[in-house]
Amino acid sequence: MGKLVALTLLGAGLALIGERLMTLRERINAYREVEPVEPQNCHLIEGLENGSEDIDILPSGLAFISSGLKYPGVPNFAPDEPGQIFLMDLNEQNPRVQALNISDGFDKASFNPHGISTFIDKDQIVYLYVVNHPHMESTVEIFKFEEQQRSLVHLKTIKHELLKSVNDIVVLGAEQFYATRDHYFTNFLVLLEMVMDLRWTYILFYSPREVKVVAKGFSSANGITISPDKKYIYVADILDKNIHVMKKHDNWDLTQLKVIQLGTLVDNLTVDPDTGDILAGCHPNAIKLLMYNTEDPPGSEVLRIRNALSEKPRISTEYANNGSMLQGSSVASVYQGKLLIGTVFHKALYCVL
């Protein structure tokens, strides 16, 4: 009798795992092929060969680009090289990237940059906040940007027990930010988390005086950004293939207003400063990203979401490629008719729209 019960439980367990694996394959679009949508005036950016995972463009047209991310399960073409922050001046006729020098006293050898966000204070000093994964941990690094020297001066490393598996960040003020946690587990149990869709990831608010979870229940909270009027926060849930529109309250808590379903795996988000539209860097088929094959590489996709706060947001495709040009798009950002598209591990694209 005991053996029969054990076999029954084993069979039920295997059936559940099989069903969850099939569901996961559907959630990550394992069978999807992307239809090409490619603007005419685009070219790869020389000097960005090992990823351009996140991009933040200042109102002046200077673009910061994080590169060299080492992330579990994702390809990396230069595993022994530290990450870098690049700068690109989009006001130039033919803009080029330049690696920014980082001040001494910072552990550059273990620099592993992920999401980034900028903050400009009342004196017009620019600060760059970087999600960093030294030795596969999670910290937030604060740098001051020295524009004349084209360099970054490291000011502070922020650590906290809630800052685990941090993906992206949006800065609200001096040492105030929201950050997303994309996985609850930081070991082999991540796979179980994905298969069972545990929804234990969250959005964190950080300040020197208060650190707290302000929204939770995400399958995998990923990119995050803020509306031009600073009233709303947009959060990508990559495994749910959607964007959460959230209202920001005076106590920093967030309440969900709506969810915009996109049908593709949404990574980082930015906002067009001229229109308020959301730009989403997306993965049309994530199985190709996780099981990298040079003969069948992951594609890239960029969506534009207009009128996100309306009852019927308008969704259009700005760019789509099957991987022949650009692999694993993670972010898209615009400045005065110029579009930058970054990737997790591959190259980056510059387009004049």
UniProtKB/TrEMBL annotation:
GO terms for molecular function: acyl-L-homoserine-lactone lactonohydrolase activity; arylesterase activity; metal ion binding; protein homodimerization activity. One of its GO terms (biological process) is carboxylic acid catabolic process. Residues 1-15 form the signal peptide. InterPro entries: 6-blade_b-propeller_TolB-like, Arylesterase, Serum_paraoxonase/arylesterase. Binds 2 calcium ions per subunit. The keyword Disulfide bond applies. It is an enzyme of class 3 (hydrolase). Its EC number is 3.1.1.2. Keywords: Calcium, Disulfide bond, Glycoprotein, Hydrolase, Metal-binding, Signal. Glycosylated. Belongs to the paraoxonase family. This is Paraoxonase. It comes from Physeter macrocephalus.
